[in-house]
Amino acid sequence: MDSNIGTAMHALMEELFPICRSLTGSGVRESLEILKRIAPLEIHEVPSGTRCFDWTVPDEWSVREAYVADSSGRKVIDFAENNLHLVGYSEPIEAEMDLEDLQVHLHSIPDQPGAIPYRTSYYDRTWGFCLCQKDRDALVPGTYRVKIDSTLAPGVLNYAELIIPGEQEDEVFLATNICHPSMANNELSGPVTCAFLARHLLEKPCRYTYRIAFVPETIGAIAYLSRNVERMKARTIAGYQVVCTGGPDDFTYLESRQGDTLADRAARHVLTQSGAAHRLLDYTHRASDERQYCSPRIGLPVGSLMRSKYHEYPQYHTSLDDLDFVTAEQLASSYALYCSILDGIEANRTYHTTLDGCEPNLGRRGFYPTLGGQSHKAADTRLYRGIMAYADGDHDLIGIATRHGWSITDAARAAQTLVEAGLIKEAARSTGKEETLRK
Amino acid sequence: MDSNIGTAMHALMEELFPICRSLTGSGVRESLEILKRIAPLEIHEVPSGTRCFDWTVPDEWSVREAYVADSSGRKVIDFAENNLHLVGYSEPIEAEMDLEDLQVHLHSIPDQPGAIPYRTSYYDRTWGFCLCQKDRDALVPGTYRVKIDSTLAPGVLNYAELIIPGEQEDEVFLATNICHPSMANNELSGPVTCAFLARHLLEKPCRYTYRIAFVPETIGAIAYLSRNVERMKARTIAGYQVVCTGGPDDFTYLESRQGDTLADRAARHVLTQSGAAHRLLDYTHRASDERQYCSPRIGLPVGSLMRSKYHEYPQYHTSLDDLDFVTAEQLASSYALYCSILDGIEANRTYHTTLDGCEPNLGRRGFYPTLGGQSHKAADTRLYRGIMAYADGDHDLIGIATRHGWSITDAARAAQTLVEAGLIKEAARSTGKEETLRK
Amino acid sequence: MDSNIGTAMHALMEELFPICRSLTGSGVRESLEILKRIAPLEIHEVPSGTRCFDWTVPDEWSVREAYVADSSGRKVIDFAENNLHLVGYSEPIEAEMDLEDLQVHLHSIPDQPGAIPYRTSYYDRTWGFCLCQKDRDALVPGTYRVKIDSTLAPGVLNYAELIIPGEQEDEVFLATNICHPSMANNELSGPVTCAFLARHLLEKPCRYTYRIAFVPETIGAIAYLSRNVERMKARTIAGYQVVCTGGPDDFTYLESRQGDTLADRAARHVLTQSGAAHRLLDYTHRASDERQYCSPRIGLPVGSLMRSKYHEYPQYHTSLDDLDFVTAEQLASSYALYCSILDGIEANRTYHTTLDGCEPNLGRRGFYPTLGGQSHKAADTRLYRGIMAYADGDHDLIGIATRHGWSITDAARAAQTLVEAGLIKEAARSTGKEETLRK
User: Fold this and answer.
1) Domain A60-153, CATH homologous superfamily name and number
2) Can you list the alpha helix ranges (DSSP code H) found in C203-279?
3) Which segments within B119-254 are labelled E, that is strand?
4) Is C53 in the A-facing interface, judged by CB distances under 8 Å?
5) pLDDT at residue A372 in the model
6) Which of the listed CATH numbers 2.40.50.150, 1.10.10.10, 3.30.470.10, 2.170.150.20 matches domain A350-438?
7) Which chain B residues are Cβ-neighbours of C404 within 8 angstroms?
8) Which of A172, A332, B418, C124 could covalently link to B423 via disulfide, CB atoms 3.0 to 4.6 Å apart?
9) Which residues of chain A have pLDDT under 50?
10) What does the DSSP 8-state code read for residue A206?
11) C404 and chain B: CB distance < 8 Å anywhere?
């Protein structure tokens, strides 16, 4: 585990944490500008009112100030202190009202008296404030002054995209969300992890083209698909929704809708090989943008590797999902697994033997241990023999490695040696996508 | 559980119990006439000697009197007391004989000294009496007078049929047996359950056509198939052999020969959802008329949901399988599960999304909970989203519901809402029959 | 278990044990001549230098004398005492050298001080001696005289073949290895078992043609395939690599590469029915000539039933794998299971019902128990009914028997009765090979 990477990820998250992000607005743009320091993202705009499949891009939301003050003028709830205090997409208001009338616009969690809940109302025009239950209980009857200096007006929805061209047009897709305000696991961990993965991919030439999208959840994913879906359907061999990567819980891999795509096979292989505690969930447990990417007429092979999964941890969607909840080490471990998965996909190929039949004579090629205990060579021989045994144009390296309990890395290294020895050659199209489809 | 239904079923069974039924004869007709009070069955005749596949309809059997009297004239075995005393299809005899000669015609069960066994000899001409072992042991040496006033002569085999036309020509098939004399679980429970299911189906318009057959076991099923097989092969989407529904044991679902037909999938779904204790048995455990319905060149998708399964309970095929062995509650529970299964089949459809891609905007249609704890709406949202997620023309509602752990009822209700909202439409042919075939 | 067979097998092994076998040479020929007494093998030659796929047949190796003597002239290591003392394919040498120089040519096993290891160097020209660690430790510094009077010169590689013609050209393939010197489980048990299986097959007419090959491991199998592969690919329906059949451990069945061929299905069926303790291993555990027979462009359906599996027992490839390690009873048990498997393959057929539908009337054909406790007949009736229930041209007898928990023997007997009664007929091609392929 590269602890420097984890530290850098956490530091970036600290910088991004206070910014007020939402579906739209300057907070999103500000966040994307910061992320551009890690990887050269290109920021795009979709105008409000644009029709995207069944959806319409909403007005842009801007907030300058928002608070509730008591009769003495003291601000008892203040957006400036924590942007979670304001219900997302609150419309402007400036009014005085009794506590009783105010209460219907307040949100708190009785069971978590110290947590400010996260609430939004994107498509119903309303306003509201969120606060800790204990602060709410301390409000005394009387008149309160409510001020929300916000604007809901035509503007743009922003997203960022990075296309890293590879040797092949086939694409691997990584997506994450940039619409959550001050919460750490869900969701600053996702964009931060994605940015560092982009940097990792930029460090060396890639076989596949990488498409990395930083989008507001749901409407952003839908808007992004509306612009790119045909190309993505034609080219995507695997994809991941990168969210919730920073929490303390064991890994969860949420399978794609089809459940056995290259994305799923690579992730399961790497998780098993890693020895990390994890569970697999099928697509009925979906709840993030894979809902769009995997939807019936889109059908992309998109899974999601997470640590603390949305809806499952008590801090979820509250102010308790903070910078202490995610650690450098947890972030680094997710980053490392995603790197291994992407490396595995890069390394995955399908081969044909070049022989008319039978095993090759490994001995005369020096691939076989001669007399005595050359245990390293013996391990290699097992790899060579296993790959030759399944080099039939049907089994990809991930399949062969999984079957034998090897890592894809070791299998790919041995396969390369066999290629160089002229014993196997790559099948015409060997992404592993076909093996899945053929099943 | 509707205890009134159970009580009514048991009451009907009490009325039917004393009648002497067999493969043929007046007892069958008398029983069918009583069942017609519950549902408008049509009684059919197949003449003796009619060739049906590999079989020939036997002569009709009538019994007026049958007894064994001792030398004092006292009837020690009397058909008038219990029709199980006479071996089914016994030929006529009037003779005196020693106990020793009589013994070869007597049947009892040493291990169950208080049980009269049920024996028949449909295809070998012979005669015999069945009695409790303890009564047999009490017979004293001497001369006995044996009288069986029976007729075995050309006549008819009767069966009853009810076709309930539905919106579609596709058929659901229910079959049961009417050839057992005075035994309750196997087999008065079957025809009684079937009659009440018919009444249930008549109460409202059905999507599918229902074919309900009350036939003598084996030869009756074969005769019925010989007249209807082409239509049934073309139209049957699911079927059940309704027998042994009244005993005290946990439910058993016996799968069809193919094992994964709509009949099987609906039954397993409902059993799982019901929470009722049950087991699944594959087709190697077949022993009733599914042997004919599922046979190689017939191949209907017919399973069987039972409580106390034939061959497995000690009272089976004896006088101990009596009206106390079946209870109103047990009958009602079987009836209720069969109703749920049939309702599930009616509700099962396959849908396509009408969208070009991505999820629908449920919020603007009012399908999405707005702020705060609308937990009922949240549950509905999960249904809407799950159905939309699999509305690809491949997954039927039973499949989607099973996958998510929902009831087909809830899924169908949500699907109807989505249809009305124009978000999904039914696939061209959506009985769920194809999904099975495609697998 | 036929203990006479086991005794005869062990006696034959005792005779073969001292002979020095290798890939080539007179020891192989001498061994094959002895095996010819059991079954009429035909001995073939492949000249040195012959190209076989990726391999070349090596020179023939002959040894007349080989020893290491100390300065007093005493032979401290002598090939005449145990042929394992000499590294296989050692080149000739006659020299004096210090112990230190000698040591690099010595092989022993520190952890097994009483075992002479088995070493060969077929493709690297070198020489060496193997000895017990304790004997090696006893060597005193000084000058040793080393003499290996061997020849490595063009000659032939020998193998033996027996083709037993059957009613059909479809072939069952049995293969074993004849290249191991004085070791019992791996590998005299294989050729001895194969020879007795050949004798068993010669005792009665067979449905299938049997191809039995006694070959040196790897190069022999490859040479054999190079001469016969097209015919074998076209005709082989099942095959087994018969090795390691004599040791004390539980049975292991190593599956073919495809994993569900007739070879695999027959072996698993017989193992389950036998009640013998066993495990199944998939093809990733391959390490014998199935590596050639199942290789990508060969693809024969070859599995392997073993007792103590190569690489797994401590005596493996040492002098401790001796005649005490294999017993008559262990050999007989492997022989018996292989016989049952071959008998099962012979008996396996696929049937169609001859009826248009429904079950046959077994009663009027006397196949059905009449009144009372004919339990034997009842068991037969279950067989008849089960076979009729699946006589659809798709399920073979091994499949039907496995499904019901019957032996293939019982199923085949019942099927024959049904054939004679005209109720079923054999499908056009019914080897069970197609069922597997269709899956």
Assistant:
1) Domain of unknown function DUF2172 (3.50.30.90)
2) 219-235, 262-274
3) 129-130, 143-153, 156-164, 171-177, 209-215, 236-241, 251-254
4) yes
5) 43
6) 1.10.10.10
7) 284
8) B418
9) 372-374, 434-439
10) -
11) yes
